[in-house]
Amino acid sequence: MVVLSNPYIAGNPVRGETYFVGRTDILRDVLALFNDPQANAIVLFGQRRIGKTSILLELEQQLAESGAYLPVYFDLHDKSDLSLSEILYRLAEQVSRHVGGTVIDRAQFDKDGSFFRNDFLPAAVCPTSKRLIFLFDEFDVLDRPYKGQVGATFLPYMRRWIASICDVQFVLAMGRRPDELSPQTLTTFRQAQLRHVSLMDPSESLAIVRQSEQNHSLYWSDAGINRVFYWTQGHPYLTQLLCSEVWEMLYDEVPDQPPRATAEDVDLAVEGTLELGANAFQWIWNGLTPAEKVALSAMAGPGKSSMNRETLRSKLRYRGSGNFRRELEMAPENLVRRDLLRRSGNGYRFTIPLVQRWVTENKPFGRVRADLESLEPQAASLFKQGQAGLANGDLDSAEMLFRRALAINPNHVQARLLLGRIHLLRGNPAEAVGVIESAYGSDPDASREDLMAALLDLAESQTDIDDRWRTLSRAARLDPDRPLIREKQAAVMRGWAQLAEKKGQYEVALKIYEQLGDAAAVMSVRRKMFQQSLTARLPGFFRLSTKK
Q1: How far apart are CA 453 and CA 146, in angstroms?
Q2: DSSP state of 524
Q3: CB 315 within 8 Å of CB 349
Q4: Within 10 A of 406 (CB to CB), how many other CB atoms are there?
Q5: Closest Cα partner for 529 from 491, 496, 500?
Q6: Are the C-beta atoms of residues 307 and 348 closer than 8 Å to each other?
Q7: What is the rounded CA–CA span in Å between residue 218 and residue 247?
Q8: For residue 137, what is the enclosing H or E element?
Q9: Among candidates 88, 211, 204, 76, which has minimal Cα distance to 144?
Q10: Rounded CA gap, 259 and 251, in Å?
Q11: Which of 138, 187, 197, 324 could form a disulfide with 46 if both were Cys (CB 3.0 to 4.6 A apart)?
Q12: Where are the alpha helices (DSSP H) in 75-232?
């Protein structure tokens, strides 16, 4: 019986020469930037799971090994609710770890970022004689403006930085196309190069498939390799996922020697791959506009390979007027730019058959059209008017328009989110939570950050410590690893412990301090417990001792 490990990494970013393959053209373009004195920033953009994080981690490793650069990878995913001083402090911590610097003082980091730029960086980086490279991942999370978000301060800081600093360079990775960002965010990239991270070519995809041959756990027939490329078209995550499922399926039979994967094995593994990758497919779907969802669903269906423009236009024909109809007409070309459709003769076809299979099984055209064409043009018009009112600070008018849009289309997620933001701006976080939770039920990915912001604002406003804990627990369910939530929960626990101390409930206080890891507080409570015990056993002696 063969006992070997599955070499395919389906989910986590890959790094190192053993696992990272391909992307030589992108790595070349980024490395060339560092030799151009006129350029100091490049933006890598592409759909989720396309490999942007793996590229950043590989760059970090290659640049560090060269000895001439100081690369610092920094993930912005969970940093959107931090102040500018806090995010720069955490960035400084990351730099210090790379240069072996001493512990830095949080109090020195001011709200306008001058200490970080003018004092910390020169002291930390200049002695190394290396060029500092910041590798920012998930940069587009800053493009979600709401009260207290770091994007409101960090983006202007970055704009000034990119425009003026010559001895620091940036690689910024994001999951949206530049034209999908707000004008404020776009100005950050005005002087930056743009690089689309797309699908791998067949030779790069082949290197992923053959990973199992390097550890001699699974061999591939030529037909099997070709079949993998047919289903995934070089999408790195889907290639890893499909190969991993083939590997697991063949080892379910407990082979006596390393098996050989055939085209038939690959086809048999497709259904399991769709189940394993359900979240990834749903993320791709959630990132589409309503019109793009209708168009992609119209293209799907058993046995379909392509659809000409006239047939697709006829299927998408919409009797309404206004923006939604225009968006439907533009949707196929937008899907081409997203790498989800390709032009084929006088029409279009799916770029990735695995995605087509998922859409066919999970998003039938009739249901999608019925759901999404409920975004009536009138509702879309009201929503846009509300956006304009909000931008001009007219909260009353914006609220009225969003409510009218929701009366027509109760499923308009963006109208609910902006209505929630109005409540936040007015200092009504409880109402904001109620509105945004409705949007979260329809579209968790689009609503998560707004709901997190509303819950944190609500917790901040609550005077009852138990209510605050319950609110923070709701926020923790959205993102249990977010440092800010853990810090606020620790503060509540400390409040409980202090209240228990005042009431003489030392056992309760002791347990909480032990959970917090507060050694000084634990020692203080133990002393009080000893005193309490001694007083109970020798009350007269204790009174005499205290009188002396």
Answers
A1: 8
A2: H
A3: no
A4: 19
A5: 500
A6: yes
A7: 7
A8: strand 131-137
A9: 76
A10: 8
A11: 197
A12: 84-99, 114-115, 121-125, 151-164, 183-186, 202-209, 211-214, 222-232
DSSP-assigned letters across all residues of 272-341: HHHHHTHHHHHHHHHTS-HHHHHHHHHH--TT---EEHHHHHHHT--S--SHHHHHHHHHHHHHHHTTSE
Longest Cα separation, the chain: 101
Beta bridge partners of 174: 45
The residue type found at 150 is V
Q: Cα separation of 402 and 405, whole Å?
A: 5
Residue 52 CA to residue 107 CA, distance in Å, equals 34
CA dist 437 and 429 (Å) reads 12
In the sheet that holds 168-174, the strands lie side by side as 69-75, 131-137, 168-174, 41-45, 193-196
37 pLDDT more than 60 = yes
Span 157-177, pLDDT tens digits:
887 776 666 678 889 998 888
373-431 pLDDT, tens per residue? 555 667 878 888 999 999 888 999 999 999 888 877 766 788 889 999 999 999 999 88
Query: CA-to-CA distance for 495 and 491, rounded, in angstroms?
Result: 6
Q: What share of the chain is helix, strand, coil (3-state, %, to 5)?
A: 65, 10, 30
Q: Residues 359, 365, 367, 368: is their CA dihedral positive or negative?
A: positive
Q: State mean pLDDT over 34-44.
A: 82
What phi and psi, each to the nearest 5 degrees, are found at residue 71?
A: -85, 135
Helices and strands, counts by H and E, the chain: 29, 10
pTM of the model: 0.66
Contact by Cβ (8 Å): 467, 496: no
At residue 356, the pLDDT reads 95
Q: State both tokens at 10.
A: 């389906």
Q: Which helix (H) or strand (E) holds 502?
A: helix 483-502
Give CA–CA dist 223/245, Å, rounded. Answer: 17
For residue 530, how far is the Cα from the chain centroid?
50
Spatial contact of 104 and 96, defined as CB atoms under 8 Å apart: yes
**Which residues, 6+ apart, have CB-to-CB distance to 228 below 8 Å?**
205, 209, 239, 242, 243, 246, 266
The residue type of 328 is L
* Residues 504, 507, 512: CA angle, nearest 5 degrees: 105
Beta bridge partner(s), residue 349: 342
Locus of tokens 């760059």: 59
How far, in Å, CA of 411 to CA of 418, rounded?
Answer: 13
Instruction: Please give the structure tokens belonging to residue 297.
Output: 């669903």
Three-class secondary structure of residue 268 per DSSP:
helix
Measure the CA–CA gap between 412 and 383, rounded to whole angstroms.
9
Quick one: which H or E segment has residue 31?
Answer: helix 24-33
Q: Which residue type is seen at 87?
A: I
d(CA 495, CA 159): 41
**What distance in Å separates the CA atoms of residue 238 and residue 260, rounded to the nearest whole number?**
20
